[in-house]
## 1
Amino acid sequence: MPATPFSCSFLVLQPRFNHYINPIFRSLTYQLSSSPFQSNVRLHCALSQAAEAESPTGGRSGALSPGPTVTGEVQKIDVNPPKGTRDFPPEDMRLRNWLFNNFKEVSRLYGFEEIDFPVLESEALFTRKAGEEIKDQLYCFEDRGNRRVALRPELTPSLARLVIQKGKSISLPLKWFTVGQCWRYERMTRGRRREHYQWNMDIIGVPGVMAEAELISSIVTLFKRIGITESDVGFKVSSRKVLQEVLKCYSIPDNMFGKVCVIIDKIEKIPVDEIKKELNAVGLSQEAIEELLLVLSVKSLTELEERLGGSGEAIADLKQLFSLAEKFGYSKWLQFDASVVRGLAYYTGIVFEGFDREGKLRAICGGGRYDHLFSTFGADDIPACGFGFGDAVIVELLREKGLLPELSLQVDNIVCALDEELQGYAAMAANILREKGQSVDLVLESKPLKWVFKRAARTNAERLVLVGNSEWQRGVVGVKVLSTGEQYEVKLDDLK
Amino acid sequence: MPATPFSCSFLVLQPRFNHYINPIFRSLTYQLSSSPFQSNVRLHCALSQAAEAESPTGGRSGALSPGPTVTGEVQKIDVNPPKGTRDFPPEDMRLRNWLFNNFKEVSRLYGFEEIDFPVLESEALFTRKAGEEIKDQLYCFEDRGNRRVALRPELTPSLARLVIQKGKSISLPLKWFTVGQCWRYERMTRGRRREHYQWNMDIIGVPGVMAEAELISSIVTLFKRIGITESDVGFKVSSRKVLQEVLKCYSIPDNMFGKVCVIIDKIEKIPVDEIKKELNAVGLSQEAIEELLLVLSVKSLTELEERLGGSGEAIADLKQLFSLAEKFGYSKWLQFDASVVRGLAYYTGIVFEGFDREGKLRAICGGGRYDHLFSTFGADDIPACGFGFGDAVIVELLREKGLLPELSLQVDNIVCALDEELQGYAAMAANILREKGQSVDLVLESKPLKWVFKRAARTNAERLVLVGNSEWQRGVVGVKVLSTGEQYEVKLDDLK
């Protein structure tokens, strides 16, 4: 792997990604402890444990002979997924599906169409965007054809690429959403993860603030669906045009804009003196820096208007957004905060982030307007805005609030033959039920009824269907409703 | 990237993957031509096209000023996804979702639980299994921590890893499914793709053939759901134990088994003389080779029984499977074919593959029993079987049979304000509908009604909801049912 001659902060690349910085390492629900810092204790499940795993002792096990092993040699594998990544065993997958289904249902309610892109992209797609500083945490490598590729750190550049590729064939505005895995490479010093999933919604082709208002509305809808209220979370909102107006006063050239925003975004993470030093290093005067920092500390729109004057786009956009928020019904969720800049270099207008009101967690989601991203890719600009919403911080918040849903496996039927010769008939009964949309856990071995009941309890089966010899002769099977204990016989044809 | 000192065929690694070999390059539905060979003609959409893309000219566009660009420099990007990978624009995503939802619904009907693993795994997970020859087409690289990692070529090793990790905490049998993206790296000489999605179902802990019968039943159910019949496809079935019994006769050591199977799997792809040479090279005598090839040409179970004798497990397993197929109701889909071996080294018993009866396509799916995979990973063995079913060949088949579903965007409502000041009220109306589960495409700009109707046609909106000033004063909105032209007014509260 060649040395990477890039030296920029992660934050340049992926502010949408910055909930990563939260030391959350555990998988969604499967964890050893409730402390976020203990969560990177891995399940160093000794292989000997697996050796003791329940051994199948079905009726046919006698037929098994110790056949040839696949290779002559045996090597113990690391049973954990690669550092910083997660497995999704059923219990975690249920939670992931629940969350993703909420993302997808909200997107559907807002009339958005689902899209996807390769998790592997050309590295240039991510290094180009933010200028010279970019790749500190890009999960990049060279493929066998000597191409520089990267596991995507975020989804927006791929979206822009696809929009440009589609060209004239699309009608604006586009309303697109995606739920995809994103990657970053970072030293695993604080139990941070190297992958997460992110829900993105983007509106391409709408220049006005109605688009941002609609996006924030969809996030509010998501929060409400999963039980999160305005007393749990809020949105901090500002506009990059505030900075732009200040920079203009000091005749800072346009091409410094992204760089300055990226530096300023670090304001709550590194000492102010460091920020000043960095701003000075890119050419801002002491005076300009002081004015910038002053403006960033403004916490009300009225005060901002006094400072900037009422004629600029920053004030007009923000006023309109707060006015729309009233109509949309989420004004209590919104607050102006000039210090919100977001770390991605490409934002140009309104920026916002969702935060927990207790202030314990990193940003839950974030987004904004990026009207000039397309031109950095060599195409004509199209006004656009969007947000990213990760799967990590929201699960933390739900856990803290006791809002994680109870999700368990649930099958409609467990179907079992009373002796081995009847297994084929049990399969027939199972298929009749499945054709009617009923899920069936078919018992595939000859097992005692005690075992079957235990399994039925584990799978939360609603009914037990028993296939016995004399019953089969009469064309019926036995049914037991497991919640009530009710038992009856039913003709095969009437099984439903 | 270090040179890879591995020299084994792709087929050793991933027979479940071998529909890749089909020269299908196009994305699921988005294509320039119906010929599979023209499909790798990329949409070299000139950036100038994008430049001509419909320019948004909403009421607010006057407020836009050419703000600062993100970076000083502009570089044209490649608008195509990396070689051998796909984007999923909305039309392709709808097809993918339709197919995956069928995979998931069938899995649910069979009582399987969904799982997932990282797309990036330790390289050792894939190189270990099949012995010394493995990595020809593994998409592997070294990460910044000097770890050898790979984009997974198949899902089964990760599943085995997770089962071992879970150890005693799981109750057997496990019935697990997953739909995940798999990767391979190959020179792009024939328009082959480097990624595909694969549906896997696995049963862990059942030693008997009922498990294989259940897996094949689930695939048959999938086929039926998507309109594929027994005259379109069938399953070729054999057992690796057939080969095992022949090898035993010639005292071939057990640790040669996987290697021999992998060579034999190539029988329809390379000349028989090559096969003989390779078998000879791993130490088989001419006599053993001739006997192996003779047995592989057997096309009926009766003939096989005459040749091997009736007492072995191979015959017993196969007979039982065909007998169960009668009960399950899919015996017409099944045929014995001794030449089916499958390319993965880890199979030990029944092996099967789904094929199109016209013989035009590669295997649609494939699977089998792998009772000794766990011990190659250093754990105790657990009997297991499973299959992989890719997203490429099945779509080819559906296309050839004219069975691809018509899937289009469909929103319930398009909601539009009659003038700009009413946009907030339109949002209120939209939210009332969304709270009742109705999807709404909210018009976010001030647009002429002609534009709105055009958009409604494109999104297949069922109703147009118009928010006008005088109506709003009266607490009503106008509704037009777009299919019938019916128009009426409705109170906001009664909107549903």
## 2
Amino acid sequence: MPDQALQQMLDRSCWVCFATDEDDRTAEWVRPCRCRGSTKWVHQACLQRWVDEKQRGNSTARVACPQCNAEYLIVFPKLGPVVYVLDLADRLISKACPFAAAGIMVGSIYWTAVTYGAVTVMQVVGHKEGLDVMERADPLFLLIGLPTIPVMLILGKMIRWEDYVLRLWRKYSNKLQILNSIFPGIGCPVPRIPAEANPLADHVSATRILCGALVFPTIATIVGKLMFSSVNSNLQRTILGGIAFVAIKGAFKVYFKQQQYLRQAHRKILNYPEQEEA
Amino acid sequence: MPDQALQQMLDRSCWVCFATDEDDRTAEWVRPCRCRGSTKWVHQACLQRWVDEKQRGNSTARVACPQCNAEYLIVFPKLGPVVYVLDLADRLISKACPFAAAGIMVGSIYWTAVTYGAVTVMQVVGHKEGLDVMERADPLFLLIGLPTIPVMLILGKMIRWEDYVLRLWRKYSNKLQILNSIFPGIGCPVPRIPAEANPLADHVSATRILCGALVFPTIATIVGKLMFSSVNSNLQRTILGGIAFVAIKGAFKVYFKQQQYLRQAHRKILNYPEQEEA
């Protein structure tokens, strides 16, 4: 070994703890990167701690010398076959579990939809008849058909036919003079066109659609019993109740929105009170 | 009206469209705030549009004069009783729906937990016996008892007894020389204490707990059938299978974590290859 390299070896010092050979003869040294001079040598133990800090618990993270940017060559003892298999299984489970958990959530919502569908069938057609229908039906048809009930209700609820009726109403309102007698002020022109009202915050309108759709069969059954008690068939009575409810609610909604529209249109901004000026 | 005020009225101009009285004799004027001079007067119609813009669809938002900061006095036609009731109902529904939707979600998870509990009872105790037990049980007890099954499984899964065993192992490993023969290298001291490994990302560990807990009864049943087929009682067989599975899995896990620990402890950082230096 040339004298110069030997000399360098003898007066090396660790760039982590600054100790030299005299301070600790037994310590193991390593030159992990391309650096020369005072940052060439470092204790193996000191460097390990330094790398631990840099990795912050992620033992597979790569670490490089902050000065010459050379990546440290970190090697581990070979994995035994058992540990290799366990490691593989561990990583597979970690990868699969988020998807399995998502599957559980979807399964939970699906199962609730099936149950809701079954309850709705019994509610609309009648308890006993509903059970008979479902017992006779093909299980596969049930597992697909029942959850479509809430889906259909939600999609149906998303159809905003009232807004369509409102647009027609405003478009042809001046031709609707005859309606003026029933709904006063229905046909007269508005002094100004108010700004389009903000639609409800997304989450509120989404929850309104969900709740409105899921409670609809119950309301249809109640309205059916109240208004069409003379109709014997549960199904027909509930369907009539549903149609009546949609129509009545729609009429109220159209009227309400039109009144809000008119209210906005007839909004007034007053003069600032005189006396406050003096 | 004093001459000066009259004169001001005559040469007023709208600070939105800059039109004066001559440009539009019929336009309605308003002085909505404390401003004087050229920004005192404005057309009612122009100010309405300006306010619409400021409100961006939120018709109840308050608007103030950008200069004197006086709030505009915006008044609406009085609400009719029907519209008042409809408005009230509309706002109530908007407030209640988010909570109702949250209730539906919780109900969905609860209902899935009840179903999972029932399926697990039938799986562990046996299909027919499970049904008998549940038919004889008090419905209220079922509606509370069944969902606690998945809850108990999840809580049980969160007990990390393997880590406790590991800590004991590392604490008294040097006294465990006798184990050295079974698990080579189990007792010998480690060259360094590796950094604590990062726990799994929260969502991964949460999903692992959820999936591990919910799949446990199925695994316990299978292990029970494989290892304790001589045991007649379904329940006992499944319990034995569960205990065996937990013990075996725990042993593997402790061994695996200890091997990872040792692997980290015997990690080495090599010298940077010489030839690359020249």
